[in-house]
Every structure is written in structure tokens, then in C-alpha cells.
Amino acid sequence: MKKIIFFLFGPISALAAGDDCKIQGSRPELVTKIAGSPSYFAKIGPEGKYMYFIQNGRNIIMDLKDPATRLIVPGPYDPVPAPPTGPDMQSAHVTVPDGGMKFFNTKEVFATIKPGETIAPVILPKFTDLENNHSYQSVGVLKDKETENPTYRVLSGSLNIVDYDTKTTPWKKLNSRNRICGGAEGRFQLPMLSKDGREISVYDTQEGVTKIMAVNDNGTCKEKLNLGFATGKSEFNYQGNQITFHVDSTNEGLGKQFRSMPAGMTKNVFTLDLVRDGDKLKPGALRRLTNNTENGTGSYYPSYTLDGRVAYIHAQRNTRDNTVAYSFQVINPENSRSSTALLMEGDDVDCTKVRAATFALGSLFVEVCKGLRADLERLGGTEAALTALSLDPAACKRMVNQYWERNAANVKQDAKILRTKRVTASHMGAVTKEAVAAACPGAQVGGTASVYTSPDAAVPMEMNRSPKQLFETYCRSCHIGGQAKKYDWDNLSGDDLNRMLIAIQDGSMPKDGLENRVQVMRPMVLELESRIQTLEDAKKRGTN
Fold it and tell me: Which domain, by its residues, includes 314?
């Protein structure tokens, strides 16, 4: 019997408290509360001690257990530690896009750290690739992992790869490919490189799903796994047998993948085991690590430690005053058993029973609990089934025992289930109460989280930046409808100038985590206005 994961993601709506509709909570082992908000990036170091993130246009490395200890490293975005290498399996370099791709010696970086202080040391890079001006990089180790001089592969920008031999001085570029995967940078978004540099995860904008692709040295790609649903950026673990990602959900359905944490959305973190059979890649167990149900609250941008723990940003919205408190949280996926949705593909009796029972559980959940939350009525089919997998195990079984008989007829004829084409009417007609109860999730395990709190003040924005510096930090790359548009500050068209000015003035850019945005962006606004006026004056002179 062939087995495959089958799961679709829909709105994970806020459920009111109720004994029969109770959601089990998340079980992080570490929570570090931070002042202010992080921006579009966060990644835990392989050692599990430090978090690398962006805040107010600055790159920060913070000790999770002593959050008053912070380093401000060069560059405005994306400080990424390289995978661990050498006899001691330590990350040897920190990569930063800052006037080219820079590689800083990790030991030199952390030699400057001062416990309890926030400092910005002056550090010189070990190597700078001036030709690699892309950001959003991820790093893999192609070979010589056991030595102190590995060969790195860096994926950055919209599907660009560069391989670096670190044995030579200066480093030697072995391979450089722009727009890999057949130049599909417009189609494939959110690319992330595996730790061995041989695979990437991408969001396919044409099909609306996340995929894993094999990357050949010549830049060609081959699809290895289609997850069948859309996710945020998906990160590989260090062993190559699991990925982690977050999923956006709204009241209307699956959310956009380039959004932050708005009031009408939730985000939840998952892991998916990767089962390797030679060159083939198959999905294994799916685990749901967080169970956020309140709109405006979410967990996102997960990343791995070397020992397999997952760290992520958590945004907790206060519904009374609509404020959001941020934290970094670390969780052990092995403690999460509640969201493994293994559905079997095939037509034998066992397969159809499992599929039908899982769909029935979701439909029953909506029927019983929609009175507690109106937006549950929008759920159906696989959306409802996945939402039910966050139920408290005892509450789930109690719900099935108490409400199955009175709702069984409606559940078995649920048109939303039949529209999935995963089961037939005869399959649903054969569902039993015992099978539905067996589809209830298991319990999450874990103790009480250790909680740490950062200083009252966030790392401040550098004021008085030049217009070009602001542009490089916030506006150089713009994602619109799955397309990445690159801008050149010295060659902006009139349309580009007006587009940027409007985006800044209406508050749509820059997004996330920028305090004092009006004051910070004022130099750029004045420059944009001046350039627009210059173009208009030139146009008038040309018509006279």
C-alpha cells in the first residue's frame, strides 16, 4: 500500500473556550521576550545559543538566555550563519550582504561580545564578493564539511548561486549561476538552500504550492517533492531529513506569503519529515508545532539548531488594545504529536477508512463548534480536517462520543468533502464513530518554558542616513505578485520615483519593525520629491 502525506491548510480561526472545542496549547521550551519588533528575517545559530535577526534596519545577534547581550554587525539585512564545519562542528562564518556578499569570521565576531551590553564592533570581513550584490541568502556546504576550509554554496536573490572554495587566499569562486532553474525567478519565490547545497525549497507562484527541487551544478533543477500547499519559506534541517515552515491563514482562506502579522490572520509552524529512497524524496510525518487560533497572533520564520530544535518569531496580539508583543521561541518537534496528518493514498479498504475518517472529524468539528465562532462556517473539507488536528485530544474524543450520532448524516453528505475528490460518497457512508475517534490527535508533551526578557529598549535605528542608504535598506527589492523588481538608485524612472514616494507616504513601505518611520524616511522622501520635480521641470522645458 502506497503512503503519502495529504494535507491542505486553511483558516486556523480563533475558537472560543469550550470543553468540547478546546485547542491544546503550544509547548515551547524557551521563550525570549524582546522589545520592539523583528523584521523580515530571523535565524537561530546552529549552536542554539544566539538568534540572528533584523530590527530597525540593523543586523543583530542576540544571546537568547541573556538578551541584554547583543552584537550589531555590519549591513542592514540578512545576517546568516554558515552551517557548522570542521572537527568541532562550529559555524565558521557569518554572511552579510553589504556592498557585496561578505563573510565574517565567526570567532572574530564573538570575540567582541560583552555580556550584558549592546555593542557595534568594527570587524573586517574574511572575504567579500563584490559581484554578488544579492540579499536573502542561504548557505550550504558542498564538500569538505569535516575540515576548516569547506566549499560553500550560497543561494541569494532570485535564484542565483555561487560556490566558494575557502582553501585559497583570497577565496576562489568555482561556480556562478544566475537565475537557476531555467530562469524561473518570477515563478519560484522564497528560495531556501539545503545545508548540503544540493536542494532548494521554493514557492511555485503558478501552482500555488511549495516544492523541493534538486539543483545541479549547471544550474538546472528537477522537482523532487510537491508539498501540495503553500507555505512561507521552508528551511532544511542539518541532517537533510526534515523541513520546517510556517503557514499563513486568514478568515477567507490561505493568506499571502509575503505578509507580516496583520489582525485578520494567524500563522503556525510545522515540520515535515523527508523520507529518502535513493534519489527519490517522499513526505513523512507532518507535525504542527504551534496552535495559534486568535486572529492577529502567529508564529513564523522557523529555523533549526544543529540538534533539531526549531526556533521562530512569535507575535502575540493583545485584543484589548490591539498591540503586539514579540518573542523568540524554541521548541522540540519530537514533543509535538498532535498534528501528524498521515493519510494513505490508494483504494484499498484501510486507506479509504483513514481518509474518510479524517475528513469526517473536520466536518464534525465545524458542525459542533461553529456556534462558538462564526467564521468556522467558512471551513470545509481539508481545511476543516487540518484545523481539527489542533484539538485537545480528550476534548476531541469527547466531541466525537457526544455529537457523532446527531451529526453523522450531515457529515457523511458534506459536499465540501466530496469536492476534494479524495473520497467518494460510498467512502463517507461507511465511516464509523470508532474510526472518527481514532482520527483524533495525540497529546503534545513538554514542560514549562524558560522565559527571558530583553532590555526595555529595542536596538535603535541609525538616524540621519542618506537617501541612498535608506533606499538600499528598504526599497532596493520589491516583491509584487510573485515578481521581484530590482531598482537602481542612480537610474530610477519617473514611475519608479512616484511608486516609491506613494508607498512611503501611504505607510505601505517600509513594512514591519521600523520605529519612527516618518522621521527615518524623511531624507529619502525629500530626495524623491526633488527628483520628481526635476523631471517635471525638464518635461515642461521640452514642450516649450
Answer: 3-18+27-335
Helix axes 517-543, 494-505, angle to 10 degrees: 150
Task: Compute, in degrees rounded to 10, the torsion defined by CA atoms 290, 294, 296, 298.
Answer: 0
Based on the fold, state whether residues 313 and 361 are members of the same structural domain: no
Taking only the tens place, the pLDDT of each residue in 452-489 is 988 776 666 665 678 887 777 676 655 443 344 567 78
pLDDT at 290 over 80: yes
Nearest CA to 77 among 135, 28, 122, 8? 135
The 10 Å CB-count burial string (b at 16+, else e) for 503-523 is bbeeeebbeebbeebeebbeb
Helices (H), 115-270: 180-183
Q: Where would I find the H helices in 389-516?
A: 393-412, 415-418, 425-429, 433-438, 467-474, 494-505
- Confirm if 367 and 377 have CB atoms less than 8 A apart: no
CB 198, CB 183: distance < 8 Å: no
pTM of the shown model? 0.81
- Which of 305, 335, 365 is at the close of a domain? 335
The distance of Cα 191 from the centroid of its chain, to the nearest Å, equals 11
pLDDT, tens digit (0-9, with 9 covering 90-100), for 362-371 = 899 888 988 8
The DSSP code sequence of 473-497 is HHTSEEEETTEEEE--GGG--HHHH
pLDDT tens-digit profile of 247-274?
A: 877 544 444 555 556 667 788 898 999 9
CATH of the domain at 60: 2.120.10
C-alpha cell read off for 291: 496552535
